[in-house]
Amino acid sequence: MTTLQVPTPAYAQSLLSSRSSSPSSGGEKTTTVILEPGTQPDYVYDNALPPWRAAIRRWVVKSLRWESECIANMQRVVRRPWLDTYFVYTSTLGTHTFFMTVLPAFFFFGYPTCGRGLVQILSFGVYTSTFVKDSICSPRPYTPPVTRLTIGTHHLEYGFPSTHSTNSLSVALYIFTLCLSLPPWGLAITSALLSFYIFSIVYGRLYCAMHSFTDCIAGCLIGTLIWSIQWAWQDRIEQFMAIKGPLGKPRSEPRSEWSCTVPTITILMGLLLINQHPEPVDDCPCFEDAIAFVSVVMGTTLGRWHGSQAGLDAESGFFHSLTPGWQLANLNDWLTFFGFALLKMLVGIAAIFLWRLVMKTVLLAMLPPFYRIISHVVTLPTRRFYTPATQYTSVPQENGLHLTPSLIDIPTSEPGPKHSLHASIASGSIAKQRGAQNGREKWPAPVNDVEISTDRFNVVKHYDASVITKVVVYAGIGWISSEMLPAMFEIFGWGVKSGGRQWFAICLSTRSGSSSLRFAGDGHTVWRRIGNLLHQAGYNGWLVHVFVRICTHG
Question: Hey, which residues are catalytic here?
Fold first, then answer.
C-alpha cells in the first residue's frame, strides 16, 4: 500500500472529519489517505512495467471502470443485511485459512493421495493467480462507486485475477472427478452442491465488490486449467514422488541407495518459482502467499519421497492400525473414535505451531548476521520492498513472532462486514486523475502536489531474512503434516486409518429404486445398519457412493 497526502475535496472532508488533517506547504488543507495497490496514476505503471504487461493492465483497467459502475448498480438492487453477512463469511471457504486448516486432516486420517492432490491444486492455483496479480498490477473495483465488504486483508492485494475463484473452482472440479462413479441422480445432487459452493464464492466476490467480472472469469479459467493438469498428471506425479533407488531403480539397500532425484528437482524448482515471482509496482502481500504455498508443496513432496524410501508409507505396510473405536458399534466406540480423532487434530495443530514458533525464532536470529557476512563476498539478490540485512540489525517484534502464520490472516479488525473508507477516497482520487467522468467532483490537485507521508500509519516492512524463513517454516509444516505426524500417530497406536477402507469396501448398486449391498472387512455389521438407515431415509445410497469414491481414492 502507498500512503499519500492529497488535497481534500469538499465532499470528502465530511467523510474524513474524524481523521487529522494538516496544511500543505501552499497553505491548502490536505488529508492523509492510503492508496490500495494498483491505484497510482497510470503513467507510474506504464513506466515501471514491460510493454506487454502494461498493455494488459490498461485493458483490464479500462474494463474495470465500467464494471465498477455495474457492480455498484447491482449492489443497490440486491444488497440485504443477511446477504452481506452470508457472502462475507462464506468467502472464508475460499481462503488460505480454511484450506490450510482442513488439509492436514487428510494425512492424519489415512487419505494422503487426496491430501497431496488438494495441496498441489491449491498451491499452484495460488502461485499462478498471485503471479498474474503482481505481473498486471490491476486494482480492485473502485470505491466509490462500489461498497466493499471485507473482514480480512485481501483488499491489500491486486484484483486481477480472483484467487478465491481459482481455488473454489479447482477444488470443486477435483471433488467432482472423484465422484464420477456415482449413479446419474447421485452425481446430479453432488454437482448441485458443488455448484452452489462455487456460486457462493465466485458471486460473493462480486457482491462484496472485492473483484470485477473480468477478475472472476480469469480466476475460473486458471482454476480449470490447474485442475485439468493435476487430474491428468496426478498418477505420474505420485509415481515420481515415490521413486526408489538411483534413477528410479528398485532399492537394494535401505539407505545407501536412496535416490536424490526427487529432493534435488523439488528444491531447485521450488526456489526457482520463488525467485522468478514478479516484483509488483506497489507493496502487495501476494508474494508471501506464493512463498508459503510453494513451500508447503515442497514439504509434502519431500515427505512422500522420504516415506517411500524409509518404508514409512502404506505401500510398505507401515500403516496398519485403525483409530480406536472405528467399529462405531456402540456409544463407547463413538466416544472413543471421536476422542482420538480430536486428540490427533489437537496434537497435530500444536506440533505445527510449535515448529513454526521455534524455527522462526532461530532463523530470524541467525539469518541476518549470516547475510551480512556473506554480503562481503557475493552480491545477495534483493527484492523491492524488502530491506536487506545490511540495513538493519534485527527484525522488529511486529515482523517477528506471531501466534498464527502470516499466511493465515485471522481478521484483527472489528467483527462483521465493513466498508474501507480510506480505500474509497484513494481509489476515487485516482479515478479522477485518470479522467474518469462519473458526475462527482474532481480532485483539484495535480499529481506533482502529492507527497509521501508515513508518519500517521503503520507501514508494513519486509526483511530479506523472512523469505528463507518462510520457505523453511512452511516446507517443514508440509513435511510434518504429511509424514512425521502420521508416523507418530501410528507408533503411538492412535491409528492413521479411520476404518474407512473397511467401511467403504462396499459395492453399492442402484437398480429400480432399490439398493443392494456387498460387504467386506469387519465393518459389515455397522455398514448394514448405516446403509439401511440411508435407504429408509430416501438417500438410495448416493451419499455412500460419494464417500466410497473419495475415501478409496486416498
Answer: 164, 211
